[in-house]
Amino acid sequence: MGILLAFLPFFVYFVAVRLFGIMIALTSATIVSAIMLMRDALNSRRSVKILEVGTVLLFGGLAAYVYFKGGYWPIAAVRLRVDIGLLLIVLVSIALRWPFTLQYAREQVAREYWTSDGFVRTNYIITAVWGAAFALMVIADLLLLYATNLPRWIGVVVTIAALLGAFRFTEWYPKRQRSS
Hints:
Strand content: under 5%
Largest sheet: none
Helix content: over 70%
Number of domains: 1
Radius of gyration: 17 Å
Number of strands: 0
């Protein structure tokens, strides 16, 4: 459930952008991200996570850019930047040899398993699946932004399918590894 909760700022952004516009949506997502980050920083049983730090920087940076630069960005253009930001967070976590799912998994697994090859490998695989989901979302965003004749619902369907697929894989794969 922890990894699902990590996407709350993105849900807040998605709802707020349709109701209130880009600036309020980005600011709201930044605030929710910062609250989640502080919650983990102040709780001795939790750790500050790379996804949450990246989310604060992503939404905060986009909000600052829109505020200072002004102008209008279509929702699809902001979505593209958000999804690229998510993909970059995942890729950086892999490059740093600290897959972002590892932090969530450690909160659910006994400490003696944290350094086992199987545990670490499982988290690299799960993180790669999330990376693939975000890459699909970026591709859908690009198509919607530049192939303007495509129906908008395609982006929604791709996003929901990618996130649901990654979430289900995250639930299923560790159980499969434990049983084999």
